[in-house]
Design goal:
293 residues; alpha/beta; Rossmann fold; 10 strands; 40% helix
């Protein structure tokens, strides 16, 4: 079986929502519903995983993630649905032997084999020596997918997201973890359209990683894009009360589930930017829903 047999909903729907916090500044808000692409391979996970799974051609897949990684969950689900073995290398050897959280429990239920490594080893996961050692230990014939699924194949897969938005919006917002979705999205848009990325991690390192991903995928930097570094709320997985309150309010207003780790930070950040006058009246602003609760 190939990913295409899973009948993804593509192109994903584009919905306009009326929100006075945006409307009073003359900004029209749209939601790009990548959260509706597939019930198990949600949002950008589909766009990034599908080309990699085609390249794997049924071989076991080894990939990386933290204890709450949506990427690990999506990879495990793909293995269950398409019938190939999956191995998840998990950051944090202190987690081994402890009760699994719901995210990792789901991975195991979908057939993923988990291997915990210390944080120092995890930071060096891209080093050829570390990768080779993991493959020798776990599955020498496995196809390796990087953390978050972000490689040149994934970036080219995410280019289709930009192509789906050509001519129908002015600015696209997307939350960023590893930067692969933004790298492809920006390359697929038409001249005159631009992307704002909202990193969900602290660090200020993401810009160069996105440029490197674009160079690997397309031979050079592509598209008009920028990063807004102010809305990580303290780091990955941090959901303080202010953000939780905002997400619940947005869900109540629009009947759309708001994923907390990525999408809530994106929507909050876009609201702040609108309030600051970052977009002229008449702007069509699209928020990309890359996941769901």
């Amino acid at each position: 079986m190939t990913p295409g047999t899973l009948a993804p909903r593509l192109p994903s729907p584009l919905e306009e929502v009326t929100d006075e916090r945006f409307a009073r500044h003359g900004v029209r808000l749209f939601l790009k519903r990548d959260d509706l692409i597939h019930p198990d391979l949600v949002g950008n996970k589909w766009r990034k995983l599908a080309p990699n799974l085609c390249a794997a051609a049924g071989r076991p897949v080894l990939t990386f993630g933290g204890a709450y990684s949506n990427h690990l969950r999506a990879t495990a689900a793909a293995g269950r649905l398409l019938g190939f073995p999956t191995i998840g290398v998990v950051r944090g050897d202190e987690l081994e032997g402890r009760p699994l959280n719901p995210s990792l429990t789901r991975c195991v239920a979908d057939g993923m084999r988990l291997h915990f490594v210390d944080r120092g080893t995890y930071r060096r996961k891209s080093d050829p020596e570390v990768t080779t050692a993991l493959l020798d230990l776990l599955c020498p014939e496995a196809y390796v997918v990087p953390e978050g699924g972000s490689n040149s194949l994934a970036v080219r897969g995410c280019k289709e997201l930009g192509e789906e938005l050509r001519g129908v919006t002015d600015v696209v917002g997307v939350a960023c973890g590893t930067g692969g979705t933004l790298a492809g999205l920006a390359a697929g848009l038409a001249p005159g359209q631009r992307v704002i990325g909202v990193p969900v991690l602290k660090g200020g390192f993401l810009g160069e990683e996105i440029r490197e991903l674009q160079r690997a995928a397309f031979g050079g930097v592509r598209g008009d894009w920028s990063l807004e570094e102010r809305f990580h709320f303290g780091g990955y997985g941090r959901v303080p009360g202010e953000l939780e309150e905002f997400a619940r309010d947005f869900e109540g207003r629009h009947g759309v589930g708001v994923e907390r780790v990525y999408v809530a930070k994106l929507l909050f950040g876009l609201g702040v930017l609108v309030g600051e006058g970052a977009f002229p009246p008449g702007t069509r602003l699209t928020a990309t829903l890359t996941g769901r609760p």
